[in-house]
Write a structure and sequence with these properties.
- By secondary structure, the chain is mainly beta.
- It is built from two helices and 39 strands.
- Strand 27 and strand 28 form a beta hairpin.
- Helix 1 packs parallel to helix 2.
- The protein is globular, with a radius of gyration of 25 Å.
Length: about 450
Amino acid sequence: MVIFSFPHGYYGAEVGALDFASDIGSLIVASDNVKLAAPLDAINLVGGRVSGPFWILRLANKLYLACYGDREFKFKSRSSPSACENYLVATEGGELSSEEIVVIDSSGEELYRVPFQYQKHLGDHHLALGSDTEWRIFNMTGKVVFSIIRPASSNNRGVARFSKPLFFFPLSPGEEYEVYDVEGERATGVRRFNGVILAVQDLPDGSVLVVDFAGIQRFRIGDGGIEVSPVLTFESAVGEETRVLAWVDDRNAYLAFDIYEAQSLLFLPLNGDPSQWLSFPTEWRIDGGTYGFKEGFNILPLARRYHTFDRAQLIWAPEETLSQDSFHLDISDNIEIEQTASTVKGKHGYCICVRDESVNKAIRSAASELSRLIHETCDHPLGWDGNILDKKFDGQFRVEIYSLDRPSEFEQGYLTDFVAKFREALYFKPAKSKASLAVEIAWRNFEGV
């Protein structure tokens, strides 16, 4: 299913549920229910997340709380920390020139410090750091076990790729890579790919999928060294500006391809069954944000095409079969939208009428329609005039909610806060107008559901 999620970004996972949070509300997704809820406590608002066995919460003043099993410890970090199975990496220091990367184990003990680098990857037992000129690999005692010259990068060219057993370091912006055996702490030699590596993905059997311009290969470390086997050859080669998102669940490996206007999702069953492609409907494109397999659900962030902030999440369980119908928004079936008279000559407003047994679902549905209409009628700093379909909107919305439920205090104020977010934080305003966005909400009893 697709759930409308703006302005809620992925926050974390609870047992059997996903949380998407913002300062105006929280969206909780479970197997049989989607619910809009009050905002999370301020202490957790910015960063509760699961990183392997770590649960990391952002507190105040760059202070974080790490929970690992029954152990807890606090640490400071100037930027968001990263974590793996048994270690986490923080950033400390004042000025950029004096910043350091700090490696901490699961008990909170500091293992070592190294000068800060923007490019970093934390593996299960190694840390890779990239400067402007080289990559260096550290073990967990702080010893440099490998280094290699780093070429200039552009788009996907010159970008290193990391899996659990293998690191792939480009030797130039071209097609050759040094493949590094992480556990053996040794370079295995140079390999040539078609174009550049666009993505790598670890599989449960310890092998690695590698995606380049021409297709997909499987890399595996065997007794005689690295074994490579073809998985899939693309019908048409892709290019260096292709974005590929890769992850795996209990049944499939997934590769989401973002190629200009074309969006598609490739399923590779782990049991060896034939692969399947799913093309996206023209309404949706792949967005930025958290993706992958979280708490029993697959998540892929979407946005309505040409709508900068009109965002959603495609969510499905491993046993579900995706199709074009899966892109249908999870909103109320009974929605009516009409133009309303305006006090401004030549202008009009909009009335959104939603009928649903669940007042919570009706509110989520109204928010989705408000977002779509705002994008189709308003200017904003990141917008393009050609996407505005209605330039006679006066900025006035009226929303009528008909439901058997009565709204809570939070639900009563949500749509007002929602429109204020577009008006005050994102600077949307009606096209060709000095008016501001406003919304009036009416709550009605509805017994005809």
